[in-house]
Amino acid sequence: MKKTVLKEYARLIVRCGVNVQKGQDVLIFAELDQPEFVAMVVEEAYKAKARKVTVEWNYQPLQKLHVRHRSVTTLGTVTEWEKARQEHYCQTLPCRIHIISEDPDGLKGMNMDKLMKARQKSFPILKPYKDRREGYEQWCIAAVPGKAWAKKVFPGMRTSLAVEKLWEAILSTSRVNEDPIAAWEKHNKDLHDRCAYLNSLQIASLHYTADNGTDLTVGMIPEARFCGGEEVSKQGIAFNPNIPSEECFISPMRGKAEGIVYSTKPLSYQGQLIEDFYIRFENGKAVDSGAKRGAELLKTMLTMDEGAAYLGECALVPQRSPIAESGILFYNTLFDENASCHLAMGMGYADTIEDHHNKTLEQCRELGINDSMIHEDFMIGCDTMNIDATTGDGKVIPIFRNGNWAF
Ligand code: ZN
Ligand code: ZN
Fold first, then answer.
1. How many CB atoms lie within 10 A of CB 292?
2. How many angstroms separate the alpha carbon of residue 252 from the centre of ligand 1?
3. pTM of the predicted protein model
4. What is the mean pLDDT of each run of 10 residues along the chain (407 residues)?
5. How far apart are CA 254 and CA 260, in angstroms?
6. Residues 236-245 as b or e (16 or more Cβ within 10 Å = b)
7. Which DSSP state fits 32?
8. d(CA 37, CA 179)
9. Which ligand is nearest to the CA of 226?
10. How many angstroms is it from 5 CA to the middle of ligand 2?
11. How far is the C-alpha of 186 from the C-alpha of 366, rounded, in Å?
């Protein structure tokens, strides 16, 4: 891919994605195989007058070695210096940029049970820091084609061609064209208009059906609002958490989901794939699940903590989105979730609560926002999906017909 185009993309992530402020620190999380692009992002961040940019590198083979050779205790221990670092981030509130490029199946064979036990140990210690920053930080997830990922998406192609094809797909669906920042302004307006209409309906519940057997009703929180595209942090800074983004999403009422839902795309969880699965809900809780591949992993995911069995997000995405129309299965949540209606298990978004800027995280959770150490999106949209909303005064309004907006 041409350097000039990649620089435009790096600039989009810095300016429109996290919207780096003068004097702000920036944290970048990236895979070890992307040094050139990460350097471009770092340079753009300094051009935007960042004070200090720090990169945290990840490498999947190392992750596997750590899990294999360390004990649950050492994996799950949060050292004093790590706590000090978390405290530092609470004080300085750096922007967070996640550049994903990893192999969707790259942690296959890792001991999930061990990892889960370690996470369960460390998470309660890290959570208070995370909660204190919740809503105050600007963050953005964007993608770069890793070699193994590109080969998974375009099997049978030689690696360099597969990488180039994946670059094209990422950049076109991320609206990196002649003027990406103007394109994003227009796109954000479209998403905000769509959400405004949904919010005017005062939806009490959504009923999903499809010919694959999906028949699920999810209750809404009266104070919750559909959101999409650009958000504003509690510091008053606008940012775009996902590049690309096509969804109008809301966090549902914890404890209000009945019925069964079937996945329509594979889910990569902790670097391993779960395919062709279903989850059945009673009183909001996942009480039964099964999968053609990765059934055990799915059960592990749903039992990570109490909240992992409850829904955290309902997102509406038409089958006619640019990502869906690309016809590509990305094996990556950032893209696949923006090509299909999806739900998420686990943590809900407190910032979907009306006037959340003036509420505490606890107040938002009391209204019915779920809390968990996980937030895992999974795709349920298809060409036969219909969604009906029941409003507060009992009217039934079509929201989706045959996989696309009904209005
Ligand atoms: Zn989503
Ligand atoms: Zn999500």
1. 11
2. 12
3. 0.90
4. 95 98 98 96 98 97 95 97 97 97 91 90 95 94 97 95 96 92 94 96 97 98 96 95 96 98 92 94 98 96 96 95 89 90 97 91 95 96 97 96 94
5. 16
6. ebebbbbbbb
7. T
8. 20
9. 1
10. 28
11. 35
- What is the rounded end-to-end Cα distance, in angstroms, of the chain? 38
Say how many Å lie between the CA of residue 187 and the centre of ligand 2: 19
376 CA distance to ligand 1 middle (Å) = 9
3-state secondary structure of 391: strand
CA 242 to centroid of ligand 1, rounded, Å: 9
Angle separating helix axes 112-133 and 80-92, nearest 10 degrees = 40
| CA 395 to ligand 1 center in whole angstroms | 26
Query: What angle, rounded to 10 degrees, do the helices at 112-133 and 295-302 form?
Result: 40
**Going from the N-terminus, what domains does the chain have, and what CATH number goes with each?**
3-173 (3.40.1830.10), 180-405 (no CATH)
Alpha helices, DSSP H, located in 70-217: 72-76, 80-92, 112-133, 147-153, 159-173, 180-200
